[in-house]
Please model this.
Amino acid sequence: QTGLVTLDGGFGNTAAYKSAITFLDGEKGILRYRGYPIEQLAERGSFLETAYLLINGELPTVDQLSGFRDDITQHTLLHEDVKRFYDGFPRDAHPMAMLSSVVSALSTFYQDSHNPFDEKQVHLSTIRLLAKLPTIAAYAYKKAIGHPFVYPRNDLGYVENFLRMTFAVPAEEYEINPVVVSALDKLLILHADHEQNCSTSTVRLVGSSQANLFASISAGISALWGPLHGGANQAVLEMLESIQAQGGDVDSFVNKVKNKEDGVKLMGFGHRVYKSFDPRAKIIKAAAHDVLSALGKSDELLDIALKLEERALSDDYFTERKLYPNVDFYTGLIYRAMGFPTTMFTVLFALGRLPGWIAHWTEMIREPGSRIGRPRQIYTGVEIRDYVPVEER
Ligand code: SDX
Model:
């Protein structure tokens, strides 16, 4: 059964969940969603069918996929009162803060969605979250730049709708570029799940107290925000820009990392599980080249990233520590070429990861006898002692 077991069968410090959703092999660089290799899904699938697969366990038939897509289309609009939450945020609020706040607030609009054992309600909350997160994300961007919100349109596909809500302005329509649509759809697939990463484990832990799905996903968004996790894609771009500002001097940056100066890290490198290569990084690196050339954009930061990767992979410091490019190393360059500011990069990660979070929450809730998560600890504090009145201290 799923649940928290320790790998060594005892009080080991590596606790492991059991789950049937995603398989990854860190040594061999293997990643499969419900048994399907990520390479095949990224190449031939779509994000919505991948979301369906993760949540339901099987790839959808034609009818199931069109029904899933139609359900989502019907729920993309936000309640007008939800829009008012954005009025309260300061202009420079980070979009991840807006995302987690608004998602948590959604639960107040769907009071009947709080019973995690009501399958009908959980399905409706699943559809509402998949449908509304792109709208919430686009509105966060519009708030940041002081532009009017653009309503979703039902005649557009999932990614097209998000791009238009993000970039269209009343003065002119946003020209939907199929290269951008297919690249973003592929990136969402590659981010859709990754077994027990920090944010997914957060969603499971919060959900294990029988908190509703909106509250659990909001917690996952907050966990993803951290620069060691999903926030790394924004940190990579900031790292590349700082190297560029130093005249593209990759060597001196690498030396700073090796000397651990001010705790600086090679962002977008390293992984808790992948100790060879991250299969997603290979696909994204190729996509970065394709998108930039298809958009007719060259980006000096891509050249710096390639130099940085080559330098690190030929340096024992990194290879001995099994530090290789992870999913975040190249994504930011693609998002930038698409027109997104760095503050939106982790929001895009959240859009991709949403179906994985929902799938894990649902698996955990549906597990017979699933119990509240309650990690134990090894006490390292002082032994018992008696209270001393303040005058005698
Ligand atoms: C994601 O879990 C997931 O699956 C996450 C994710 C997902 O899909 O959900 O894959 C997405 O979060 C990818 C990771 C994005 N984060 C970054 O790119 C931030 C930079 N990376 C590091 O912070 C780090 O590699 C972690 C957090 C990703 C993993 O950390 P670990 O496995 O705990 O490694 P560690 O901190 O124990 O480091 C081991 C050694 C240390 O050196 P020593 O003390 O042995 O001398 O490697 C060094 C670390 O200092 N090290 C790095 C480094 N990562 C680890 N040194 C320089 N640059 C780095 N990036």
